[in-house]
Amino acid sequence: TSIFILSLLSNINKNTQLKFLKMKKIVFSAAVLMASFGASAQGFYGDLSIGYGLGFPNSVLGTSAHTDATTTGPMFTPTGAVKTEKNLQGTIGAGLNITLAPGYMFNEHIGAELGLNYFMGGNTLMQEGTSTHTNTTVGWNAIEWDNGSGYAKSSQFRLIPTIVLSTGTESKLSGYTKLGLILPVAGSTTITSERVQYSPAIVGGALAAVPTTIESEEVVKGAFTAGFRGAIGVNFKVADKISIFGEVFGSFLNIGRKSSEITKVTRNGVDLLPDMTTAEKQTNYLNEINNTTNSYGTGAVIDANKPLDVLNPAKTNYNQVGLTVGVKFNF
User: Fold this and answer.
1) How many whole angstroms separate alpha carbon 171 and alpha carbon 3?
2) What are 47's strand-pairing partners?
3) CA distance to 38, 55, 88, 199, per residue, from 221 (Å)
4) Measuring CA to CA, which residue among 241, 259, 194, 229 is closest to residue 324?
5) Which three-class secondary structure state does DSSP give residue 271?
6) d(CA 294, CA 300)
7) pLDDT value, residue 35
8) How many angstroms separate the CA atoms of 48 and 290, rounded?
9) What is the pLDDT of residue 80?
10) How many C-alpha atoms does 267 have within 13 Å on its Cβ side?
11) Which of 45, 78, 102, 108 is nearest to 329 (CA)?
């Protein structure tokens, strides 16, 4: 009986060994095929591109107001005014994008890249107002009495880690799609404003309107925020290692404020900044203020030598929809 069992085990072991050898050959052959496929399709590359994005969708950025008033007498006392006001719609996300994106294709269809993006926004109107007065006594007809406007302009350096899916990088013409994150790591938004106010005064024995021009500049820094970016495009090989591409992209990014600082205030060219306290120039934006923060209306005593603490307003819209063109180098 023991001899029979040993013989049976020996046969089973031989069958197992044969099956194992066959399986080993199959796995080895598959590995060779995959390696040869990957060798021809995988590799490092670099993209250099430039594009422009339109801000979308619009949100309320500020207001536009206009007042028509009638004044009489030397003191210009208003006797009637008609005011119109409307919201200013838009985003400060519109602007130019310059991107360098080193990447690696794991095979012909799947890859990853890290975009190094510089965003340069355009001037966006945030606030405007005019006041037009007519003075029947001195014969002034619709003189602009108060005129002001404010603009915002952003610049940011962003990291964009992305997954790339391609129809086939070995083809002369291929399509692809990208999905990734937007991580702003540096940058700021500068808000500039100018206001001209007129005051009645006697000049040379006659009544006149004397202008006062106030200019200011404020730099706002955002809190760290992650957004999303998607793109779909076409890649065309013009040489063995060089391609050109074009893509339509959409990015979705809303950034909250972290801090701000007034860097310029002048009245008729005279610098007023040296006379301002730290609390008047600098602001920290928090999600909660109380009697321990440097805030008005909370029972705290304001320390003029520290930045003022205020509640964080709604996040700012940096969304974009746009077009990018570029060149790709395979290594």
Assistant:
1) 64
2) 101, 328
3) 45, 20, 22, 36
4) 229
5) strand
6) 7
7) 40
8) 49
9) 60
10) 7
11) 45
* Per-residue confidence (pLDDT) for residue 6, from 0 to 100: 33
Q: From the CB of residue 331, how many other CB atoms can be counted at a distance below 10 Å?
A: 9
The pLDDT value given to residue 30:
39
Rounded Cα gap, residues 253 and 90, in angstroms: 14
Give me the half-sphere count of Cα atoms (radius 13 Å) on the Cβ side of residue 316.
24
Side chain identity, residue 240: D
Rounded CA-CA distance 234/177 in Å is 9
This prediction's pTM: 0.76
What is d(CA 236, CA 181) in angstroms, rounded to the nearest whole number?
25
Q: Average pLDDT for consecutive 10-residue bins of the chain (331 residues)?
A: 37 45 45 40 89 84 81 58 80 91 94 96 87 67 71 94 93 94 94 84 71 92 93 94 95 92 94 94 93 85 92 88 95 90
Give the integer Cα–Cα distance in Å for 216 and 262: 7
Structure tokens at 60: 């309320």
The amino acid that residue 236 corresponds to is F
- 3-state SS class at 182: strand
pLDDT, position 78: 55
The continuous run of DSSP H or E covering 27 comes out as helix 2-41
- 300: tokens are 């705290």
38 phi/psi in degrees, rounded to 5: -65, -35
Residue type, 253: L
